[in-house]
Each structure stands twice: as structure tokens, then as C-alpha cells.
């Protein structure tokens, strides 16, 4: 099984396939993205200072120098401000899983995607968000709901590897085990995990779930061999 690529490998591979937008369109989209990032950053800072429930949308709007309506346009649900990157990450993972190389399993692709998107991130920001989620039961419930998106996505990709339906037991088992293992991998609110340490832990996770996937892939061949031997 292929595990973690060197940092930057995926970025370099994708660089040649980027479609450049017209200048005016690119500028508009970059401005919207900066506004979105500013709102999310300010909101998370206020949540850390005052608490999630104690911070209002108006507070966030004033601190970000935008209107409350703008905040709600970018983040219709207040909880989305804590998980600001979720929709973007799900879209990126969907694309990565759908564009797997020949012979690359869903678990291999997932590992490469995690390295691409989660190493080198702001550790202080991650600790702040994890502390906030740990302190708020409502956020933990919301996070579990978001995790179900990832589990369904992985199950669909694994179903391709197993030549099965996504609702079959095999894909669901691999997807559930993957999400549970990744949850165990997540650093605690007071842990400053170094990228090297994260990669070592991730490799263990991929080895674990990858072995389960390979065992399930081997089952049809084993059944055919038993039938052939008994006939």
C-alpha cells in the first residue's frame, strides 16, 4: 500500500492543471474569499475570548467591519463559523477521490489529501478551535453531523474499490473505521502536534484501515477459489 507522499507532491502535480480565471473574475472571487476568511477568523477569536453562545452575529459583524447580513450570507448557521472550511474541504476531497490514479485505493487517496490540506496549518488556530469545540456540547454534536458527510463520501469511494454498493456492509465498515481512526488521531486542545508526528500517526491509521480494505477486496477471490476447489 502506498502511504504518505512527500510534502508538496500533490500541489506540484496539480499545478499544471489549474484553469486561470479572467482577471476581473479572479479579483472578485479573491475579495469574497478574503472577506469570508476575515469573518471566520474574527468570529473564532471572539468565541475564544467571550464564548460561543455569548458572542452575537452583530458582535462578529462589527469586529469584521461588515454588516450582520454579510456574516449570515457567508455563514447561514452560527456553527458554520467554527467549521468555516468544511464545505471547501468536502468539495476538495470529493474531487480527489473521484480522480484517483489507476490502482490507487480510496484510502491511499484520502491519505494524500490529508497531507495536502492539513499539514503546515496554524497550530495555534487549531488549538483554539479544538478548545472551543471541547467546551461546547452543541458544537460537538454539530461536528459529528459534519463527520457523517465525510463517512458517506468515503463509503462511496470504497464501494468502487470493492465493486459494491455504498450501502453494503463492507464500504460502510471501512468508512466508519476510517472516521473513528481519524478522530483518534486528532490532537487535543492543549496538544501542539508537530507535522512529523502527525504524519507518523496518520501512517498508522492508513495502515490499519487499508489492511481492512485489502482484506475485504480479497474475500470475493477467496470465495471463488473455494467454489472452484469444491466443484
Describe the protein in words.
It contains 10 helices and no strands. It folds into 2 domains: 23-81, Arc Repressor Mutant, subunit A; 85-231, Orthogonal Bundle (Tetracycline Repressor, domain 2), CATH 1.10.357.10. By secondary structure, it is mainly α. Helix content is 73%, strand content 0%. The longest helix has 36 residues, at 195-230. Mean pLDDT is 81; it is low at 1-24.
Q: SSE layout and pairings?
A:
Elements: H1 9-15, H2 23-50, H3 57-64, H4 68-74, H5 86-98, H6 106-118, H7 123-135, H8 137-162, H9 169-185, H10 195-230
Helix pairs in contact: 2-3, 2-7, 3-4, 5-6, 5-8, 6-10, 7-8, 8-9, 9-10
Keywords, separated by commas or semicolons:
10 helices; Arc Repressor Mutant, subunit A; mainly alpha; about 230 residues; 2 domains; disordered N terminus; Tetracycline Repressor, domain 2; about 0% strand
Overall spatial form: elongated
| CATH fold description of the largest domain | Tetracycline Repressor, domain 2
- The CATH fourth-level homologous superfamily of the largest domain: Tetracycline Repressor, domain 2
Radius of gyration: 21 Å
The span between the termini is 34 Å
Question: What percent of residues are in strands?
Answer: under 5%
Number of helices: 10
Highest-level CATH class of the largest domain:
Mainly Alpha
| Uncertain residue ranges | 1-24
Order of helices and strands: HHHHHHHHHH
Structure class: mainly alpha
Binned, the helix content reads: over 70%
Q: Number of DSSP strands?
A: 0
**Domains, number:** 2
Mean pLDDT: 81
* CATH-level-2 architecture of the largest domain: Orthogonal Bundle
Amino acid at each position: 500500500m502506498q502511504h504518505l507522499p512527500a510534502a508538496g507532491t500533490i500541489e506540484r502535480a496539480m499545478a499544471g492543471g489549474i484553469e486561470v480565471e479572467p482577471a476581473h473574475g479572479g479579483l472578485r472571487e479573491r475579495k469574497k474569499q478574503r472577506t469570508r476568511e476575515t469573518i471566520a477568523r474574527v468570529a473564532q477569536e471572539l468565541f475564544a475570548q467571550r464564548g460561543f453562545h455569548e458572542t452575537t452575529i452583530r458582535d462578529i459583524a462589527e469586529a469584521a467591519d461588515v454588516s450582520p447580513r454579510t456574516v449570515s450570507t457567508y455563514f447561514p448557521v452560527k456553527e458554520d463559523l467554527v467549521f468555516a472550511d468544511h464545505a471547501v474541504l468536502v468539495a476538495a476531497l470529493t474531487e480527489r477521490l473521484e480522480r484517483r490514479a489507476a490502482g490507487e485505493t480510496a484510502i491511499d487517496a484520502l491519505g494524500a489529501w490529508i497531507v495536502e490540506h492539513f499539514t503546515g496549518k496554524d497550530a495555534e488556530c487549531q488549538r483554539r478551535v479544538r478548545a472551543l469545540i471541547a467546551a461546547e456540547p452543541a458544537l460537538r454534536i454539530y461536528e459529528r453531523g459534519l463527520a457523517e458527510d465525510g463517512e458517506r463520501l468515503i463509503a462511496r469511494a470504497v464501494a468502487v474499490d470493492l465493486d459494491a454498493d455504498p450501502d453494503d456492509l463492507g464500504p460502510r465498515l471501512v468508512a466508519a473505521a476510517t472516521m473513528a481512526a481519524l478522530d483518534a488521531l486528532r490532537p487535543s486542545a492543549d496538544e501542539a502536534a508537530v507535522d512529523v508526528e502527525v504524519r507518523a500517526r496518520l501512517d498508522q491509521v492508513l495502515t490499519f484501515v487499508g489492511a481492512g480494505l485489502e482484506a475485504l477486496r480479497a474475500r470475493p477471490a477467496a470465495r471463488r477459489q473455494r467454489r472452484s476447489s469444491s466443484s
